[in-house]
Design goal:
The chain folds into two domains: 66 residues, 3-Layer(aba) Sandwich (Rossmann fold); 64 residues, CAC2371-like domains (S-adenosyl-L-methionine-dependent methyltransferases, Single Sheet). The chain is an alpha/beta fold and 148 residues long. It is built from four helices and seven strands. The strands form two sheets. It has a five-stranded mixed β-sheet. A two-stranded parallel sheet has the order 1-2.
Length: 148
């Protein structure tokens, strides 16, 4: 994603790193966390470390933009198995998802995906697995206020 951003906006500065360990000697007008990356912060200390680090590098009146899964909605609609398919140029990509709510934490779920790429009569299969976290709006507001 950084390579695409640099290609599209060569005059801007982009930094790639671990948001849980922000140690940057510079301040920014904005911080953008893309791709639902915030949902990969499954432990409270990871969330707090990330927000504190962002607060340290964000200029006064700066903007934080991020997305995440809404816990009020995601668990209402969680479906054990889903499938999406796209046609792209000369290949077909199918993603089969399996989601199961965690027994350890009511805000977490286990997500597994199988990607099947079909091209020229050949199939390749890739697997991805993650534990993800959803946040309620009240929880996010309190986390953000606590870090200011």
């Amino acid at each position: 994603m950084i390579n695409i951003a640099l290609r599209e906006y060569p005059d801007l500065r982009f930094i790639c790193g671990d948001m849980r360990e922000l140690d940057i000697d510079h301040t920014f007008d904005s911080v953008i966390i893309t791709g639902r990356s915030f949902s990969y912060l499954t432990e409270d200390n990871e969330v707090n470390d990330t927000l504190r680090g962002i607060n340290n590098i964000l200029r006064k009146n700066g903007i934080l933009i991020f997305d995440n899964f809404n816990s009020y909605k995601i668990f209402e609609d969680i479906t054990e198995i889903t499938e999406q398919k796209i046609e792209l140029e000369n290949k077909t990509i199918t993603r089969q998802n399996r989601s199961v709510r965690s027994e350890k934490n009511p805000h977490l779920w286990e997500w597994e995906a199988t990607y099947i790429v079909e091209k020229g009569g050949k199939k390749q299969e890739y697997k991805d697995r993650a534990t993800l976290r959803a946040f309620g709006s009240d929880e996010l507001i309190n986390l953000l206020i606590d870090t200011i």
